[in-house]
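Sequence in, structure out. Go.
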Amino acid sequence: CDSCSSTISNCTACSSGAMLMTETSGPYTANSCEILTDCPTSWFESSPNACATCDSNCETCLGTSVTCTGCSAGNYLMLDTQGPYVANTCESLSGCPSGWFESTTNSCSACHTSCKECSGLPTTCTECDSGRLLMLATQAPYTADTCEVLTNCPSGWSQTTDLTSCYLCPANCDSCSEANPLQCIT
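Output:
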């Protein structure tokens, strides 16, 4: 100890090269000084040269006990705030919820608000909310895998039979067949 309170084993500050452990967890005792350069896994630096434990769902955290940077087994790290989920928290889930995608192993990112479902990137839509159509190709002003506020596909595009998406027809067609998209209807 560099300084202590009431007894020599009740440290309030540590000498250089040691960290004050503020809680009892695992091999560490509250108010003890440990020869460490950084806080151990599942701990964070709560103040200069002092370590506190992360929330039980967090495997690693930063700045506060509930600002998770990694999750314990069986939990997913939520990277954004959307709906009931808060950024940098760990949730006990079997996979990313609807409207989210697994951006890295056991980490979920929210889909863009125009997408009902997405994959790989927040703006790579795979399904749209009602009142939007999924564009399956890129031709100005539309971009593939985006959800557009349309009730019908624009000229030069045709709608899928499930009425959820638009596919691009050949350049000389106003509309084409889903069964044979290269064949013009008009």
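Check: The first strand starts at residue 3 and ends at 4. The chain has no helices and 18 strands.
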